[in-house]
Amino acid sequence: MKTRRAFLQNITMASAGLPFLTINASSLGNIYKSDDKVLRVALLGLGGYAQRVAESIQSCKRVKITGLISGTPDKLKTWSAKYNVPEKSCYNYQNFDSIKDNPEVDAVYVITPNSLHREFTIRAAKAGKHVICEKPMAINVKEGEEMIAACKKANVKLLIGYRMHFEPHTLEVIRMRNEGDFGQIKFFQGLCGFRIGDPAQWRLSKALAGGGSLMDIGIYAINGCRYMVGEEPIWVTAQETKTDPVKFKEGVDETIQFQFGFKSGAVASCLSTYNMNNLDRFFLNGEKGFAEMLPSTGYGPIKGKTNKGEINAPVVVHQTEQMDQMAGILFDGKKPVVPVDGEEGLKDLKIIEAIYKAVATGKKVSL
Ligand code: NAD
To answer: For the Gfo/Idh/MocA-like oxidoreductase N-terminal domain, which residue ranges apply (predicted)?
Structure first.
């Protein structure tokens, strides 16, 4: 994409002579061409995050909304008018399987409460559509495996909505780590949380959410730990703190601290909570230097610095970047720097289960 290239060149030139780090165009992966195939996506579950995704898609170079699936007829009416989706491409949860006969839809993006991801992913796969599914991909490992198997059987791709895997500051830290700028990695700290409101919402229902803060926001510390350290953890210990057992019922965690060990000898210390606002920080340290992301996984702008200076990378709308890059993955076989496939989602679920086991037993759990 011409404007992107010009933008990146401008950034490099503007920062010449300053103690800033620059990111080069190739680390962003895609330079779009006008003849790139457009990804036609149907959004399933028209709630808060779907709204953000829908708005972000309006700025995409190669993605458009061509279908809508919702249980609320009024939403279908409003959204179809707003995003110019014909009535024949609007479905409810009962008739959604007939999307298989709709040649205008390439992929279904599942954006419902967590426990519904499995069912809708499998139904979309059976309808012959690629699936993009929000994080966490499911509420347990077994369901995640079933989703991967269903997509394989239907010969469609399964991608998880890991938007940070396309975020330029994040990618720059990964590039620097790979080039040895921080030396041998020794330590990571991931702190992720917000203070949750309405006690009646699905995020506080074990049946719909599959857990509590760990499933929803702590997953960013788990996933981030893996891409920042660049290694898979081999053991975990964890401790839970619950100050409000009325709001955070059995099986819904309020705050969990967890620690990882890695084969290299690196260790990590993380915290996931539904009881602190503006908690969003990653810190990575190696033998030679550090990287700090603050904020690290919110909608941005993401800010990062290292012992060499501030990271000066393009500020992007995460969901716009994610969707354009996913079009490249689905149609052109592009390989992202950090994977976003079902297996990647499953790795996080395995760690989540191990953390819950470590909390329940008080013991170190091997991964
Ligand atoms: P939300 O409550 O705003 O929206 C959920 C939607 O699902 C609503 O439209 C609701 O009507 C629908 N729904 C269908 N069946 C339902 C049921 N049985 N109970 C409740 N709602 C039902 O939630 P959200 O914030 O949009 O989250 C949806 C998914 O997106 C979750 O998996 C969440 O983890 C994920 N998410 C991801 C990000 C990200 O940055 N990647 C951010 C927010 C949410």
So the answer is: 39-162
